[in-house]
Amino acid sequence: MPFASRGSVKIHYTDTGGPGPAVVFGHSLFMDQEMFAPQMDALAPDYRIIAIDSRGHGASEDDETPFSYWDLARDAWAVVDELGLERVVVGGVAHGGFTAVRMALLARPRVAGLIVIGSSAESMTPQRRAGYREVLDMWASSAIPGPTIRMVCSLMIGGTAADQQPWRAKWAAAPRNRMRLAGECLVNRDSVHELLGDIDCPALVIRGLADQATSAEEVAELAAALGSPAPVHTVAGAAMTPNLTHPGEVNALLREFLAALPS
Fold it and tell me: What is the pLDDT of residue 49?
């Protein structure tokens, strides 16, 4: 398995390879790079799709110290550097979207385009922070995880039983306490709203209509505050992960966006 190292962290990634323009994707909380299998299948070989396992997820390894989305953005750039790529499109879903925005802020000249799915630019309110910590505590400590897994599946994936089943099985078999530091990264995230105007590359912003984690207003505010304001594409029937449950619609949006980027 390929890894890139940054200090004591080993970041696992999947790379379709090829000469096409490179697109780097970050997954949502609780999931891993496998959530981008529909994009790898649909977009390669026209595009080089690189999907990263964030700290606490998949095959990545870390030193179990707290981290922020700025750290995850630097991890992702370490993967890009490992692959010898100078300029890439960066994107992500929810947790991965927070990372992608910070990737763009850290290295604007290296970002050819930004893809944000189900993310905002704001920090969490104290009320939402408390609610998320309750769910994370249940996830890590429940002796009978089935009900918590079903709740998380419903909120994050929605869709059909076939969409959910692979992830239910994976979560039931995984050490769920790995997620705690990633959860703290999510609930303690800083606001970058005032910095968004510095991101002047083309952007694609997508939200699932049934996304209960990020409101339509939050997504619209992010899209409007970018240096190159972008419309919000809403996917009817989708929750937080429309790329997984509605790949046909999302892949068409991705292909149209990528094809229009300056070469």
Answer: 98
- Whether the CB-CB separation of 50 and 24 falls below 8 Å is answered with yes
Write down the pLDDT at residue 165.
94
Please name every residue paired with 233 in a beta bridge, in sequence order, or none if there are none.
206
State the Cα–Cα distance between residues 184 and 68, nearest whole angstrom: 8
Which parts of the chain sit beneath pLDDT 70? Answer: none
Domains and CATH numbers, the chain: 3-123+190-260 (3.40.50.1820)
Q: What is the DSSP string of 83-148?
A: TT-S-EEEEEETHHHHHHHHHHHH-GGGEEEEEEES--SSPPPHHHHHHHHHHHHHHHH-SS-HHH
Give the number of residues written for the chain: 263
Q: What distance in Å separates the CA atoms of residue 262 and residue 124, rounded to the nearest whole number?
A: 35
Share in percent of the chain as helix, strand, coil (round to 5): 50, 15, 35
User: What are the tokens at 61?
Assistant: 């390894």
Determine the pLDDT at residue 177.
84
Per-residue tokens: 28 = 């949502």
- pTM value > 0.85: yes
Q: Which one-letter DSSP state was computed for residue 237?
A: T
23 in Cβ contact with 49 (< 8 Å): yes
109 by Cβ neighbours in 10 Å (0-12 / 13-18 / 19+) ranks as exposed
Pair 97, 118: CB distance under 8 Å: yes
